[in-house]
Amino acid sequence: MRKLTSTPKQDGFRMPGEFEPHRGTYIIWPERPDNWRNGAKPAQKVFTQVANTIGKYEPVTVIVSDGQYQNARHMLNDYVRVVEMSSDDSWVRDCGATFVVNDQGELRGIDWSFNAWGGLVDGLYFPWDKDDRIASKMCELEGANRYRLDDFVLEGGSIHVDGEGTLMVTEECLLSAGRNPQLTKEEIEKVLCEYLNVEKVLWIKEGIYNDETNGHVDNMCNFVRPGVVALAWTDDENDPQYKRSHEAYEYLSNEVDAKGRKLEIHKILTPTPVLITKAESEGVDAVDGTLPRQVGDRLAASYVNYYTGNGFVAVPVFGDPHDELAIKQLQELYPDRVIEPIYAREILLGGGNIHCITQQVPETRK
Ligand code: KQY
93 CB under 6 A from ligand 1? Predict the structure, then answer.
């Protein structure tokens, strides 16, 4: 497939909202023992559950190394496609392609530079070159030409669009020293508008407390549909999340989207703080250059890190008293979709959640 030198905006391509119809979704199989405890066995069970659940509604492709191919093929349902591909870890939202479509039903991919959430400044592992090649390989599988940005670092979890000209990001992430420190905020915004074909960028200040991605927006806030957002929330003034959520609410309440609409904001309470246990910490291999998992560390737990697919929403739950409320609220926000709660502590222990381990390919039919 071809590498393009123009931009999606120049060519009339846009990134659809995640709530628009999908051709399918990608997931990468977890295996590295310095991120996933107990040789990634507990994580593999949950990734299997996520893939099998999503596969009931839309085609799923699981990317897996040769070493894990037979195990993954055995664990996953037959309706899940399993393909061998090299990766450094399993966060396809971040290293995978961002797909864009045009009105003629054509699909293209954006292949951002990936540097493991901060490169040599504050990245989470080294090296990351296999991950950086994932987007290009996904484009090959999908038959999509691709826009490659050699000089612009971005992860898919740091953006959310409404498909109608509005993008949401956090300053904490996009202006962090490990991403594009050579560019000003205005220059970053220009690249985003050109490649995602949007006119309005909503800059939320910060994401979820202690999020090792430097506060990805996908853990904090999501478009339910154009003009409507779900925001991670706490009423506990003693929680460091309080200020973050309240500032975001204040900011979004005073903004309009690309179409000039005021935003309808729905507050989704975060679970009670989730801390790493001794057993969980001890199960992770210590390797220089990989973020350690220490007992008592607070994880960036949020229900907003859900995946919206064809006719369903896959929601992480934590065995927390707030689970039920989050499920109820999301069912009200998505009356036409089945809510699929998945106990996702094992994904959270690796540093993200269901949205971070999935990447949708939009439907291209006209
Ligand atoms: O998007 C994400 N939340 C990915 C987190 C990566 C964690 C790597 N240990």
Answer: yes
Whether 356 is catalytic is yes
Q: Is the CB of 116 under 6 A from ligand 1?
A: no
Ligand 1 atom index nearest CA of 89: 8
In angstroms, rounded to a whole number, what is the distance separating the alpha carbons of residues 285 and 293? 9
**Cβ of residue 94 lying under 6 Å from some atom of ligand 1:** yes
How far from 231 is each of 42, 228, 244, CA to CA, in Å? 29, 10, 11
Q: Tell me which residue of 88, 305, 134 sits closest to 216, measured CA to CA.
A: 305
Nearest to 41 by CA among 7, 3, 77, 72: 72
**With bands split at pLDDT 50, 70 and 90, how would you rate the model's confidence at 349?**
very high
Give 143-154 pLDDT, tens digit per residue. 999 999 999 999
> How is the beta sheet containing 160-161 ordered, strand by strand?
160-161, 166-170, 200-204
Q: Which tokens sit at 70?
A: 């037979």
Q: What is the 106 CA–ligand 1 centroid distance (Å)?
A: 30
Count CA atoms closer than 13 A to 13's CA, side-chain side.
Answer: 25
Supply the residue whose CA is at minimum distance from atom 7 of ligand 1.
351
